[in-house]
Design a protein that fits this description.
Blueprint (H helix, E strand, L loop, with lengths): L3 H11 L5 E6 L2 E6 L6 E4 L4 E7 L3 H14 L3 E8 L4 E4 L8 H4 L4 E4 L4 E13 L2 E10 L5
Antiparallel strand pairs: 1-2, 3-4, 4-9, 5-8, 6-7, 8-9
């Protein structure tokens, strides 16, 4: 049975009505990757979250990544204020406090420097059999 804290997190995350958004969690801000529970990973060398929607294999997604980024129509930009410390990617169905004990293999630690970022979303279909969502993270610059 899931704790009420996890349901609170899930309900709050579900209130994000766009593909991405932010949510206050304690004294920090979480980036919410909304819309669907697609398997997701982060590619630090590209500063991209990749959300598998449809593909025959992971290697098909990676092979289509460069053309996908080139044709991406970036939408829904949000500012994300990130304090020091690692970011934890996890399913909002679980409370962040339960990850280590109950979900040790179902989260990903991501090392990002503290700062203000812009997150933008794109859904791409670079081939007829490959589709995925992308969330690009870039450093925020005034006037952007």
């Amino acid at each position: 049975m899931t704790s009420s804290a996890a349901w609170t997190t899930t309900n709050r995350a579900c209130q994000v009505d766009d593909y991405i958004g932010t949510l206050r969690v304690g004294d920090t801000e979480a980036l919410v990757l909304a819309d669907s529970p697609d398997p997701t990973t982060f590619l630090p060398d590209r500063m991209l979250f990749v959300r598998w929607s449809g593909a025959d294999s992971e290697s098909d997604i990676l092979a289509a990544l460069d053309p996908a980024v080139a044709l991406a129509d970036w939408r829904s930009p949000v500012r994300w204020h990130l304090p020091a410390g690692p970011v934890v990617l996890f399913d909002a169905a679980w409370s962040g406090t339960e990850l280590r004990g109950h979900q040790p293999d179902n989260h990903l630690l991501i090392a990002l420097p503290a700062g203000v970022y812009v997150a933008e979303y794109a859904y791409v279909e670079p081939t007829p059999r490959t589709s995925f969502g992308l969330v690009r993270i870039t450093a925020y610059e005034d006037g952007r």
